[in-house]
Amino acid sequence: MAKFVSILIWGVVIIGCAVVGMSMFRVTYFSGADRVYYASQQFIAKLTSGDVIEQGFIILVVGVVIWLVISATQRSI
Question: What is d(CA 43, CA 50) in angstroms, rounded to the nearest whole number?
């Protein structure tokens, strides 16, 4: 059970990092507001890159918090 939860937590952290990384790439690669908006609508369907980056950081923080809780409970048992 602990191994499954560990793999799940790592998956959440990796997905959070990927979302943030792709959003940062989109902001830096596409120059101009029109191109960023078009890329946002085509690839992620969000209006702003900031929304997507914020969601990525939330996913990342949730993964880290769950990892900390699980590791603390495993050490106390």
Answer: 15
Angle of helix 49-76 versus helix 2-29 axis, rounded to 10: 160
Q: How far apart are CA 38 and CA 34, in angstroms?
A: 6
27-52 tens-digit pLDDT: 777 666 666 666 666 666 655 777 77
Contact 53, 23 (CB under 8 A): yes
CB burial of residue 56 (10 Å; 0-12, 13-18, 19+) = buried
Please report, as a single letter, which amino acid is at residue 36.
Answer: V
51/67 Cα distance (integer angstroms):
24
Instruction: Give the integer Cα–Cα distance in Å for 52 and 8.
Output: 22
Q: In which residue are the tokens 């960023």 written? A: 36
Task: Please count the other Cβ atoms lying within 10 Å of the Cβ belonging to residue 4.
Answer: 8
